[in-house]
Amino acid sequence: MEKVKKTVFSGIQPTGTVTLGNYLGALRNWIPLQDEYDCIYCIVDLHSITVRQEPAQLRHNAMSLLALYLASGISPEKSTVFVQSHVPAHAELAWALDTICYIGELNRMTQFKDKSAKHSDNLNMGLMNYPVLMASDILLYSTDLVPIGKDQTQHLELARNLAERFNNRYSPTFVVPEGFIPKLGAKIMSLQNPLAKMSKSDENPNGFISMLDDSDTIRRKMRRAVTDSDTEVRFSEDKPAISNLLTIYSLCSGVSVADAEKQFEGAGYGVFKDAVADAVIATLEPIQQRHKQLMADKDYLNEVLKQGAERANRIASKMVAKVYRKIGFLPKV
Ligand code: AQP
């Protein structure tokens, strides 16, 4: 049966507090899609344990991330919002996909190489398997479109390959998904190292702005942000630090990069950084207020999760049953 609306799937890991990078590169772009698509937004907690997590902190992070989704404008009436571990089909399909994914494909993944280097004391199978679980997340829901930051393009490509491989080996089953990467903000860089992406698990908190940082902290981190050698506020490849700040400024203020360059001509970095801080604060403050209210209403948040899990389970369990049947497993009696 033809779908009336196309399906969107995306998720964020509850590995810490979502950064401005996650927001500008991903979360923010999810909001307008809700009117046009069937959107499924997941808190991908199964992914998060590929790196060691403290249980109480993980529980808190997952709930706080849900509140951030809603505070940012995700509507549980329009979209399906749920926690990955509440839907067993994610792990069930991942196992089947594992058996058609080659070790060499996973060994090549940049994120695996980066995270292996960072967590050499915990080189677990999950870390390597991460992209297969992500493929499962996406393929379970016959997803057409996956809004992601640039860092996830390699993983999405694997999901497409696995979908095609399964379809060819058995029969057409999965939709082959397309990525949706924003033109501006697809890779927000660290404030301390403009050659590395802004990451919520960065050991140096000055490298990222958390969506829940208060205004003083945001201003302080912005003032400490590294800059490039001259004093010109200009977007260019040889000015990665200022180009990153211009991207943040443009996305938060709505002023185009070209207009911002004119606006800060001859102004110097100090004035520019303060203006970037103002724009970020103005963007995050209303979200933070709604987040605070939502966190005080756990009954509501739990109800959202319950309904989201029911909806997601209905779709996902059917897909797993179909896949298992095609593979040749005995049907349940
Ligand atoms: N710096 C970034 N700029 C733009 N987009 C970004 N994303 C992540 N960092 C940036 C996008 O955010 C979504 C959710 O990411 P995730 O939490 O699932 O995992 P990640 O990509 O590994 O993000 P982090 O912040 O770096 O998490 P940790 O530190 O735990 O590994 C994705 O769509 C991602 O592209």
How many E strands?
5
Gyration radius (Cα, Å) is 21 Å
| Share of helical residues | 40-55%
Q: Average pLDDT across residues?
A: 95
Low-confidence stretches: none
Strand composition percent: 5-15%
Given helix and strand content, the structural type is mainly alpha
Tell me about this structure:
The chain is mainly α. It contains 13 helices and five strands. The strands form two sheets. Strands 1-2-3 form a three-stranded parallel β-sheet. A two-stranded parallel sheet has the order 4-5. β4, α8 (153-169) and β5 (178-180) form a beta-alpha-beta unit. α7 (125-139) crosses α8 (153-169). The two termini are 26 Å apart. The mean pLDDT is 95. The structure holds adenosine-5'-tetraphosphate. Adenosine-5'-tetraphosphate binds next to α1.
In short:
The chain has 333 residues and is mainly alpha-helical.
Helices, strands, pairings?
Blueprint: E1 7-12, H1 20-33, E2 38-43, H2 45-48, H3 55-72, E3 80-83, H4 89-98, H5 103-107, H6 110-118, H7 125-139, E4 145-147, H8 153-169, E5 178-180, H9 215-224, H10 240-253, H11 257-263, H12 269-295, H13 298-327
Parallel strand pairs: 1-2, 2-3, 4-5
Helix pairs in contact: 3-12, 4-7, 4-13, 7-8, 9-12, 10-12
The structure holds adenosine-5'-tetraphosphate.
Adenosine-5'-tetraphosphate (AQP) binds near residues 19, 22, 25, 26 and 200.
List keywords for this structure.
single chain, 333 residues, mainly alpha, three-stranded parallel sheet, two-stranded parallel ribbon, 13 helices, 5 strands, 7% strand, globular, binds adenosine-5'-tetraphosphate
